[in-house]
Design brief:
- The complex is a heterodimer of chains A (about 1100) and B (about 160).
- Helices cover about 70% and strands about 0% of the residues of chain A.
- Chain A has about 1100 residues and is mainly α.
- In chain A, helix 24 runs parallel beside helix 28, helix 30 runs parallel beside helix 32 and helix 35 packs parallel to helix 37.
- Chain B is α+β, with helices and mostly antiparallel strands and about 160 residues long.
- Chain B has a three-stranded mixed β-sheet.
- In chain B, helix 2 links the parallel strand 2 and strand 3.
- Classes of the chains: A mainly alpha (about 1100), B alpha+beta (about 160).
- Chain A: It holds the Pfam family MMS19_C.
- Chain A: Keywords: DNA damage, DNA repair, Nucleus, Repeat.
Chain lengths: ~1100, ~160
């Protein structure tokens, strides 16, 4: 009962047109839910609505019918009684004739027709009635946009779901469609309309059917849209993109062959237009037509089609052929959209009907090229017209050849021998020998145009070689004709290309380019039926390899040859050509690897490395070979250095390591088995260091150590845990055999450290740095032996100034005991124990790590020299970072010690050295910033989420209070530097939450830091933080409150002399401030304008550009009477 | 009131693609100086990322109408002098003074105050060339013109950003 009461209420609400649309939607929703739940049946609803559906009030009746229709739309998937559906569809069909309620009637019909696969479907007879009623009583074009769309949808639905019924109606449907489309201008409606035409064409394929007889009219109605042009491009984002609609139109035009007599002439006419869009659309549409109309119908248009197509190709080709590296594997010139479509059409036509090729082959223009080609030898010398001829003809021929094997045969039979004659390339004689003396005379005249044509043809034809499995099914004789032509010439072709490359000099890259490209084309024929024999293939490889090994400078030729080799390598890998792979391995890979190994050749070392790494990464087996070669090369160079003191060798070593890091490691995921080889490489590095006990010469550069550390760290970083363990074990053995363990016994007292004056030997230093890198890269799960003594070792070494050791210690502390499972280091040493060793309390009663510890004391200058002090601070920072990232509380005390160092005096009243304070301030950068060298994701660091935020909330209040109480300007500056590091490394949302509190400090920081140029980078990052707060809505209030101070600060920074970006950003910030309330900023306009006007004369252009924008913006808020 | 436009059907040229060949001096070198040059001044006048000066009569920019070209700007940074020579679309173009005024205002707002700005009509392209030149380079008359609210509004309209 209650449901029914509500129902009346909702009905009233929906029918009342004075209510808001949201009201209507609500009541609809309510009724729909009760229908869905079954509280209300559709019968009941109709009975209840009786009055609304039959009343004489037109508006109410229309709304009532619409409501019923909407309900049916909601119930699309709910089973209904057939009788109900029948009576409803009858009702709506009748209402179609009544224009006032046409929307409801249309939606109702559509909702019912759309029902599919559920109980209660409209019968074919009813559907026929709907269609008939619609055709007879609705004038589509007189309706509103939405109703028109409904009409088209209804038509579409009827044709799709009741094809038989619609066939019965015959002519009527075609007439109705014609009438409906006539004059339609709305894209969404047209989209459906075009589909309707397509459906009609599919429904009436018979030549005596209604579509055939009405083809001319129907075509007229749709062809007037071609080519599509939107007059109103912007605004309606729900509208349909031009491309989609144009595709729909093209499908409609090509939908039935009956359109052919009208469509093709129209399209050809549009193709000749000067409008690019018309050209593209016509070409696309012609292609669709060619597919759908069939060969016999298209044939009569060939004689018009071919010239039009040719013209389109000529008009869309540009003559600037690139001889650059990047175009080695591409056509070498820019392809416009018109060009692409023209090529597609040509390919389609040739593929479909070989007789089209007759036109191409007999074309005078095409044939003429072969006669004129020998007129110029160099491409640059050619006239633009003949360049164009060559390019277009090569395109036409290669596209036609690509279409099918048959067409390829024809093209090759007709043109290839002619081309060869022109180029002076001779056939292989029956005995297989070449006529050599003739070659030598002709090789001097290489015609670029001809070579280009020849290469294009060869490149195309290689795609036609069937893969090995297809090969057996096709008869040999049918497809091999072009192959045999190529193989007759292959030897001389290769010779010609080779001589082109070899004769080229540096100022003419075209020779080299064409030569290499030709060789590449010859080398890329697939499979056993390739026209190029194995010995010829090997010859190509030898030629290319010799170019690489012979050049001592990085010329274009060298790069081209390398790229060609890489292409061939990956081609061999892709089609798994085992025979060719063997040749490649023997000729290219082994040659290059042996060059790496020998290190005594004319080629500079980095070039060999580059060539080898590029070539070898094409196939896993080559990679293995290469890493082996690298290993050997490393070992021999390294020992050569150790024994003979050859500095050249150590330089080679570092280049080799750099190559491993930069070229190989990034491709680890692409190349299988690379990880294993690299781990082996790392271990043999350790072996080599272990075996060279004596370094007879000292290093004079850090380069090698740096490169070795980087490579070692990265290899460990990417290796699996097991491999890591084996590297760590190996490294540990080397460490224990060195003199380093002696350091472990040094007690941690100042006296002992002072006593340790002697620096580490070169070898020990290398071992220590490498070992630290291993530890840095190790994952938490890897097991590290003898942690306690290692901690001690690192501790002593960083106090001696080896920062890498401090980083390693930080990494170790970070990962200690966090690996899952109990089988790792945690059994050996826990975090607590490690910390005990590090912080080494003076009174061992309680576990703290604050200022009372040994390290803390050094930091604060209670004992030890200044050097020790700064080293201890840096070390503490790295240890702190390790602790901070894993979320350990001890970092707080470390932070306290560091902040203690920023005060001007320590607790016993001694003044702290400025350099101590500077290191302490920088320690905050170490703690907060993301490091590249250690403690990051790549090196498996343990990272607790939000660790930066936590540190921020702990340190910032303390720093703030210290700033307020700071005693000397230096201390104040340093505190600001520290604060700037913390603030600028924390995510911007944190700043925004605290803008009110932070803004004054940031502003003060900016003015303090702007005094000294040393802090320019810090100043810039702090300024970026400020600019972040200016734009956000959260910070707006406090920005507005502090506007005067912000503007004052920014105005000062617009003339900051030390960093351009600071000035630029300051001016940008000033422009942003204009978003503040007018009253807030207006008082400062004079000040700002003055500063910005001064910035107009800034030495840097970028600043000036910003200043002009900013000045313009600020001028506009000033009064009109001062235009400048 | 004369109805209709002075030049009803101007020739519209395609804008030449501008390649920025000037390398910005590298960020690391803080001391180097980028002198103000021809292209920069031209950019100030034309480049749409700043503001377009539009022809008062047509919706085209002055560059499209070839009223201003890159070569029509002469700059001497050391002597703080800039001279802009513009070519009205037709000889009797009454808008020449307005265009000149727009150019002047734009440059006054965008160049450092030390610059002396010289605006001229290209010789032989305007009926009252001498008069226009005199008017545009007379400080008093320019100042007076900018006191006129209608004129200022017109100039501001020309200098307002165009939303393409």
């Amino acid at each position: 009962m209650a449901a029914l009461n509500n129902l009346t209420e909702h009905l009233e609400a929906f029918v009342d047109v004075t209510r808001s649309p949201t009201h209507h939607a609500e009541s609809l929703k309510a009724i729909a839910t009760s229908l869905e739940k079954g509280v209300l049946s559709i019968n009941q609803l109709v009975v209840e609505m009786d009055m609304y559906l039959t009343t004489t009030d037109d508006v109410v009746r229309a709304r009532g019918i619409l409501l019923l229709a909407e309900m049916l739309d909601y119930l699309k998937s709910k089973p209904l009684d057939n009788a109900v559906v029948h009576s409803l569809v009858g009702f709506f069909t009748a209402k179609l004739a009544e224009w006032r309620s046409v929307r409801g009637a249309l939606s109702g019909c559509l909702a019912l027709i759309k029902r599919k696969g559920v109980a209660g479907v409209v019968t074919a007879v009813d559907a026929e009635a709907v269609a008939k009623s619609m055709a007879q009583s609705i004038q589509v074009q007189s309706l509103a946009l939405y109703d028109r769309k409904l009409c088209f949808e209804l038509l579409e639905c009827l044709l799709e779901q009741y094809p038989e019924a619609m066939i019965n109606l015959g002519d009527l449907m075609v007439y109705a469609t014609c009438e409906a489309i006539d004059g339609e201008k709305d894209p969404p409606c047209l989209m459906i309309a075009f589909h309707v035409v397509e459906l009609l064409a599919r429904l009436f394929p018979s030549p005596s059917g209604p579509v055939a007889s009405e083809a001319s009219d129907l075509f007229e109605f749709i062809s007037c849209y071609f080519p599509l042009h939107y007059t109103h491009t912007k605004g309606d984002e729900a509208s349909i993109p031009r491309e989609d609609l144009s595709r729909g139109l093209s499908l409609a035009i090509s939908s039935t062959p009956f359109f052919e007599p009208y469509a093709i002439p129209l399209l050809l006419e549009k193709l000749s237009s000067s409008l690019p869009v018309a050209k593209v659309d016509s070409l696309k549409c012609l292609k669709d037509c060619a597919v759908n109309y069939g060969v016999s119908r298209m044939k009569k248009h060939y004689k018009y089609l071919w010239p039009a197509l040719k013209d389109a190709l000529y008009a869309s080709t540009k003559t600037d052929l690139s001889f650059g590296l990047e175009s080695l594997t591409s056509p070498g010139f820019g392809m416009g959209e018109i060009h692409r479509e023209a090529v597609n059409l040509l390919q389609r036509l040739v593929k479909q009907d070989i007789s089209f090729l007759g036109l191409v082959v007999e074309d005078i223009r095409v044939n003429m090229v072969f006669d004129t080609i020998s007129r110029y030898s160099r491409y640059e010398e050619m006239l633009d017209t003949s360049k164009l001829e060559v390019l277009v003809v090569s395109q036409i021929l290669s596209v036609s050849a690509r279409s099918s094997v048959e067409s390829c045969n024809i093209i090759f039979e007709t043109f290839f021998s002619r081309l060869m004659n022109t180029l002076g390339i001779v056939e292989k004689t029956s005995t297989g020998d070449l006529v050599h003396n003739e070659i030598s005379t002709v090789s001097t005249r290489l015609y670029h145009g001809g070579l280009h044509l020849c290469i294009e043809l060869l490149t195309t034809s290689k795609d036609l070689i069937p893969s090995s499995e297809e090969c057996t099914s096709t008869p040999e004789s049918a497809q091999q004709s072009w192959c045999s032509i190529v193989s007759r010439f292959s030897a001389s072709l290769i010779e010609a290309f080779t001589s082109a490359v070899q004769s080229s000099n540096d100022d003419c890259s075209a020779d080299a380019y064409l030569g290499v490209k030709g060789l590449l084309a010859m080398g890329m024929f697939r499979g056993g039926s390739s026209p190029v024999s194995r010995s010829e293939f090997e010859k190509i490889l030898t030629t290319l390899t010799s170019i690489i090994t012979a050049n001592s400078a990085k010329t274009v030729k060298w790069e081209l040859a390398l790229k060609a080799l890489v292409c061939m390598g990956s081609f061999i890998d892709r089609y798994s050509e085992s025979e060719k792979a063997m040749s490649y391995m023997a000729i290219v890979v082994e040659n290059l690897v042996s060059l790496v190994r020998s290190s005594h050749c004319s080629l500079p070392h980095p070039m060999i490395l580059e060539a080898t790494s590029e070539v070898c990464s094409t196939r896993p087996t080559y990679v293995e070979k290469m890493v082996e070669g690298f290993e050997e090369a490393f070992c021999s160079s390294f020992s050569d250095f150790c024994v003979n003191g050859n500095f050249k060798s150590i330089e080679n070593c570092s280049q080799l390591l750099e190559c491993v890091t930069n070229k190989l490691l990034p491709r680890l995921t692409e190349i299988d088995g690379l990880e294993k080889s690299l781990v082996h490489f790392a271990i043999s590095m350790w072996n080599q260091i272990e075996s060279s006990v004596v370094f007879s010469y000292d290093f004079n550069g850090r380069e090698f150590v740096e490169a070795a550390m980087k490579t070692m760290g990265e290899i460990v970083g990417v290796a699996s845990v097991d491999s890591q363990n084996s590297i760590i074990q190996k490294a540990y053995n080397v460490i224990s055999s060195s003199t380093l363990p002696a350091m472990e016994s040094i007690p941690l007292t100042v006296a002992a450290l002072e006593g340790l004056q002697r620096d580490l030997s070169t070898r020990d230093e290398l071992i220590l740095s490498l070992f630290a890198s291993v530890i840095i890269g190790a994952s938490p799960k890897a097991s590290i032996p003898d942690v306690k003594s290692l901690v001690h070792l690192f501790l002593v070494s960083f106090l001696k100034g080896y920062i890498r050791a401090a980083q390693a210690l930080g990494s170790m502390i970070n990962k200690l005991g966090t690996g899952s499972g109990g089988t790792n280091i945690s059994t050996d040493c826990s975090l607590e124990e490690a910390c005990d060793i590090i912080f080494h309390e003076s009174d061992s009663s309680k576990t703290i790590c604050g200022s009372e510890t040994f390290l803390g004391k050094i930091c604060l200058g209670f004992c030890g020299s200044l050097d020790h002090q700064t080293r201890a601070i840096t070390g503490l920072a790295w240890i702190g970072k390790g602790l901070l990232m894993r979320g350990d509380k001890r970092v707080n005390e470390i932070a306290l010690v560091l902040m203690e160092c920023l005060k001007s005096t320590n607790s016993s009243g001694n003044a702290l050295h400025p350099s101590t304070m500077k290191h302490a301030a920088d320690a905050f950068l170490t703690l907060m910033s993301d490091s590249e060298v250690c403690l990051n994701r790549k090196f498996h660091a343990v990272i607790r989420p939000l660790y930066k935020q936590r540190f921020f909330s702990i340190t910032v209040p303390i720093l703030e209070s210290l700033i307020v109480n700071s005693q000397t300007p230096l201390s104040r500056t340093m505190l600001h530097v520290a604060l700037a590091h913390v603030v600028s490394n924390v995510p911007v949302t944190v700043i925004l939450d605290n803008t009110k509190k932070l803004l004054p400090v940031i502003l003060e920081g900016l003015s303090v830091l702007s005094v000294d140029s040393v802090h320019k980078e810090t100043l810039f990052s702090l300024l970026l933080v400020l600019s972040g707060t200016l734009t956000d809505i959260k910070g707006q209030q406090s920005v507005s409150d502090n506007a005067h101070r912000i503007i004052e600060c920014l105005v000062k920074l617009t003339s900051y002399p030390h960093l351009m970006v600071v000035r630029e950003t300051a001016i940008q910030c000033l422009a942003t401030l204009l978003e503040l309330p007018h009253g807030r900023i207006y008082p400062f306009r004079r000040e700002v304008l003055q500063a910005v006007t001064k910035a107009l004369d800034d030495p840097k252009r970028r600043v000036r550009e910003e200043a002009i924008k900013c000045r313009q913006a600020w001028t506009s808020i000033s009064s009109r009477s001062t235009p400048f | 009131m004369v109805s209709g436009l002075i030049n009803e059907n101007p020739i519209v040229y395609e804008i030449k693609e501008r390649r920025d060949v000037r390398a910005y001096s590298s960020n690391t070198d803080e001391l180097s100086v980028d002198a103000i040059d021809q292209l920069e001044v031209f950019d100030i006048l034309i480049a749409h990322h700043i503001r377009d000066i539009k022809d008062p009569e047509h919706p085209y920019s002055l560059e499209q109408l070839k009223v201003l070209t890159e070569d029509s700007v002469e700059v001497d940074d050391t002597k703080s002098h800039v001279r802009v020579t513009f070519t009205p679309t037709v000889e009797h173009c009454s808008m020449a003074t307005i265009i000149g005024l727009c150019v002047r205002v734009k440059l006054m707002r965008s160049l450092p105050p030390r610059y002396k700005i010289d605006i001229r009509v290209a010789p032989g392209t305007h009926a009252t060339e001498a008069a226009v030149n005199k008017q545009l380079n007379d400080k008093e008359r320019v100042a007076a013109a900018l006191e006129n609210p209608n004129l200022v509004e017109m100039v501001d309209e020309c200098l307002s950003p165009s939303f393409e």
